[in-house]
Design a protein that fits this description.
Order of helices and strands: HEHEHEHEHEHEHEHEHEHEHEHEHH
Radius of gyration: 19 Å
Number of strands: 12
Structural class: alpha/beta
Low-confidence stretches: none
Bound molecules: 1,3-dihydroxyacetonephosphate, iron/sulfur cluster
Distance between the termini: 46 Å
């Protein structure tokens, strides 16, 4: 059955001149058929350089929107339009405009997990793999960081000469992991290294042996000699980790690390959206141009 679906998708991709991009948190069946798998930064850059006319973005809405902002001439499809990111919804452009008035001297850095409108209101964008470099590159001594307080707090601790003002947003998945979960796992696997995503709570990040984006975690694991490794990010990452490291055992820091939005997209959804050309992402051109500048500054860094 699955083989039939895969064959159908290959046909459709040819017919529509389409490429499939998938985030590291997608279901295994999506990662299996993807042309490219990656973290937010890598996928944004790939979206800019692909030759195909249609980009099927298997991820959540802000990712497909980012691809559209960067590649306005492409048709960008998000197979399940309800696949959103609750953290991105924790800041609106209107709220941001209002808070900016309280900090007129601050530069606004927005995490890529945000809407096009919020990006358009910000000075520069960042992802989890370049956030420290982005904040470090800014002249202003005050930074308003939106919306992830955990990533912002991590970045603030790495850069001593700047004040980072935190928005109160968070990832509902990574933020679920508690210090009790960590102590429990560490008791069971005391010598296993801990690799975490910076969207985790500060008390978790402080205990980690490595902190990075999903792709950075994947790269780091390859270098490690350890046979048991604790992973503190969404469980979809285990697909690539297991494939690339069949001799290693991966222990998820908590079973709570499942993003229901990332799991909404199935192979059938991808086929249906591509076949019918539905769920096409559009961004208002005035907003897009401003958001493009915010993203371009990050990409050129
Ligand atoms: P990265 O893949 O960029 O690390 O992002 C993690 C994430 O939460 C995406 O929603
Ligand atoms: Fe949003 Fe968190 Fe899911 Fe990423 S893992 S899409 S930040 S809710």
């Amino acid at each position: 059955m699955k083989e039939n679906l895969k064959a159908k998708l290959i046909e459709l991709k040819k017919e529509k001149n389409a490429v499939i991009l998938a985030h590291n948190y997608q279901l295994d069946e999506i990662q299996e058929v993807a042309d490219y798998i990656g973290d937010s930064l890598a996928l944004s850059k790939i979206a800019m350089s692909v030759k195909e006319d249609v980009i099927v973005f298997c991820g959540v809405k802000f990712m497909a929107e980012t691809a559209k902002i960067l590649s306005p001439d492409k048709k960008v499809i998000l197979p399940v339009i309800e696949a959103g990111c609750p953290m991105a919804d924790m800041v609106t452009a209107e709220q941001l405009r209002s808070v900016k008035e309280d900090y007129p001297e601050a530069a606004v850095v927005c995490y890529v997990n945000s809407s096009a409108e919020v990006k358009a209101e910000s000075d520069i964008c960042c992802t989890s793999s370049n956030a420290i470099n982005v904040v470090d590159s800014i002249k202003s001594k005050k930074i308003l960081f939106v919306p992830d307080q955990n990533l912002g707090s991590y970045v603030g601790k790495q850069i001593s000469d700047k004040e980072v003002i935190l928005w109160q947003g968070f990832c509902i998945v990574h933020n679920r992991v508690t210090i009790q979960n960590l102590l429990h796992i560490k008791e069971k696997y005391p010598s296993a290294p801990l690799l975490v995503h910076p969207e985790c709570r500060p008390e978790i990040v402080e205990q980690a042996d490595f902190i990075g984006s999903t792709s950075e975690i994947i790269r780091e694991v390859k270098k490690l000699k350890d046979k048991k490794i604790i992973i503190g990010t969404e469980k979809g990452i285990l697909y690539t980790l297991k494939k690339q490291n069949p001799d290693k055992e991966f222990i998820l820091l908590s079973e709570k690390l499942t993003c229901m939005n990332m799991k909404k997209t199935t192979l059938k959804d991808v086929i249906s959206a591509l076949e019918n050309e539905t769920n096409i992402i559009e961004v208002d051109e005035r907003v897009r141009k401003k958001a493009y500048e915010t993203l371009k500054k990050m990409i050129l860094l």
